[in-house]
């Protein structure tokens, strides 16, 4: 069992400071990585207004080369107070994962990957769908709260419990986005 930081998993009510915390950290990461950071997106539940979440700011950082990131950019991110977690490569292939904060609970996660990696699109379309569909966000909130209560400090059980909802909602989100794109292209 993979334990969650320093105690039980807590899903907090939405905090309107989360976008501000994202912007502050995004600025620090942009400064550390310079032009190597192609894009920095706020992702995960803290990026969806009104959605309860573990109070961890997730930053999705696009880079032109994951191999170059492994060779040259781990230390600059560490200098910002992040710990690189190489053992997550088996769970998160195609990205470098960092977390910041006392040894749990963490305050920030950085997911470094190439924007062409399929997970990049999946994370953003899921976020955008929840932002646009309050009923889906509410269903996700209910699942997260129930899983936090039943998983206690087993983060793997928490992640696994969300998996089906995330996969199904991501599929709906892709269809939603494709429909919106077709609607924009249709002649009047």
Automatic annotation (TrEMBL):
Residue ranges annotated as transmembrane are none
Q: State a single Gene Ontology molecular function.
A: transferase activity
> What keywords were assigned to this record?
Transferase
Organism of origin: Bradyrhizobium lablabi
Q: What is this protein called?
A: GrpB domain, predicted nucleotidyltransferase, UPF0157 family
- Extract the InterPro entries matched here: GrpB/CoaE, NT_sf
* Origin superkingdom: Bacteria
Keyword Hydrolase listed? no
